[in-house]
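Subject: design request, 279 residues
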């Protein structure tokens, strides 16, 4: 599962590839989606890199036709897109000719929801889709009180009364600046020693923070005192704070980038997160 999740293939990727097989050209895909031709080419090249195989049998400057791998990918892409559309229809948010209001927390709003919106705007006849950003707990509350039609979060609030469906998985990873002495030592560190330096955390309604607190408690720990924590609003601000050496933190695997993953000794963290559609 870990190796599979590193293959960051989105619904938008599947949608663009299906469009390419029907239009037969990059320009055709660009015209249908509103993307530039270089943007379409870049996305499709990235898709091939993620899969690790060529999806097309190219003939000179012509795209040619899908390769055997491309044909298999197309088959499964159509199935995934159809099943996802069925999910939206079953949960009652694909009624035509109305505004669909979606709520999303930080990480899904960056890595999943925009691609979903792009894909479904091409597949459905809905005239407008609106996106509201909030912490995971607030998104759950928005869904419960019908402020939004659907929500995407990395954490499902305890006692949530609506329907939910996991669409992806993520791992929350302990990280530190590459310039930190801990990063340069290359040795496992005990958690009690790690807690002697500031812990950078998200705001209280963040799904990442909720998952972190639950796992700390399971391992017999709790968040440090306020004097040893730095609370920031938003993932990018947190990553930048870690990069600048203000302390260590736990971040989504999507945001590790140039940070260094910490090897924490004798602590079992189950820092998984299901990115779910709720509604």
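Subject: RE: design request

Done. Sequence follows.
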């Amino acid at each position: 599962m870990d190796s599979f999740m590193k293959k960051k293939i989105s619904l938008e990727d599947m949608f663009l590839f299906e469009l390419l097989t029907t239009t037969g050209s990059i320009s055709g895909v660009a015209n249908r989606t509103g993307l530039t031709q270089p943007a379409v080419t870049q996305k499709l090249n990235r898709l091939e890199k993620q899969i690790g195989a060529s999806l097309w049998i190219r003939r000179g400057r012509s795209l040619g036709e899908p390769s055997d791998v491309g044909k298999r990918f197309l088959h499964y892409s159509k199935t995934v897109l159809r099943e996802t559309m069925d999910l939206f229809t079953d949960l009652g948010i694909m009624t035509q000719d109305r505004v669909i209001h979606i709520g999303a927390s930080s990480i899904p709003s960056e890595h999943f929801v925009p691609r979903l919106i792009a894909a479904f705007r091409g597949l459905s006849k809905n005239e407008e889709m609106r996106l509201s950003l909030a912490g995971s707990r607030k998104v759950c509350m928005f869904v419960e009180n019908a402020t939004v039609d659907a929500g995407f979060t990395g954490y499902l609030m305890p006692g949530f009364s609506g329907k939910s469906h996991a669409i992806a998985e993520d791992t929350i990873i302990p990280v530190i600046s590459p310039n930190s002495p801990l990063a340069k030592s290359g040795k496992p560190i005990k958690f009690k020693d790690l807690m002697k330096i500031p812990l950078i955390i998200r705001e209280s309604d963040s799904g990442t923070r909720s998952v972190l607190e639950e796992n700390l408690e399971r391992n017999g720990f709790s968040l440090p005192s306020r004097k040893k924590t730095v609370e920031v609003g938003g993932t990018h601000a947190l990553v930048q704070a870690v990069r600048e050496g203000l302390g260590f933190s736990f971040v989504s695997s999507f945001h590790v980038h140039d940070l260094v993953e910490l090897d924490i000794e004798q602590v079992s963290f189950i820092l998984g997160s299901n990115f779910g559609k709720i509604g």
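The longest strand covers residues 164-176.
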